[in-house]
Amino acid sequence: MSAFSSDPDLNVQDGNGTEVDVATNLLNGDVRLSILWTQEILLSADAAEQVAHALQRAAAQSRSLTAATASRPDPDAD
């Protein structure tokens, strides 16, 4: 099972079938941007905007996860 949660609203491919994925690590809040099957992807303006929005959603989710982690009491602290 992966700790990463991909953005379900992002469905972007270029003309060659290359896909992009934006995911948030649910354990530590890291945001992963993956370009699948190649080293580059050529995006239309609309697709680039979708990726940008997915990254913004992931950043917000990351902030929420890290804030929740920071607000938890340390079980080892006395």
Molecular structure report:
With 78 residues, the chain is an alpha+beta fold. The chain contains 1 helix and 4 strands; from the N terminus they run ββββα. Strands 1, 2, 3 and 4 form a 4-stranded antiparallel sheet that branches. β3 (19-25) and β4 form a beta hairpin. 9% of the residues are buried.
Low-confidence stretches: none
For the secondary structure, the number of strands is 4
Strand content: 15-25%
What is the 3D shape? Answer: elongated
Q: Separation of termini?
A: 34 Å
**Helical proportion?**
25-40%
Q: H/E series, N to C?
A: EEEEH
Q: How many helices does DSSP assign? A: 1
What about the largest sheet? 4 strands, antiparallel
Label this structure with key terms.
78 residues, four-stranded antiparallel sheet, alpha+beta, 4 strands
Please outline what is shown here:
The chain is of the alpha+beta class and 78 residues long.
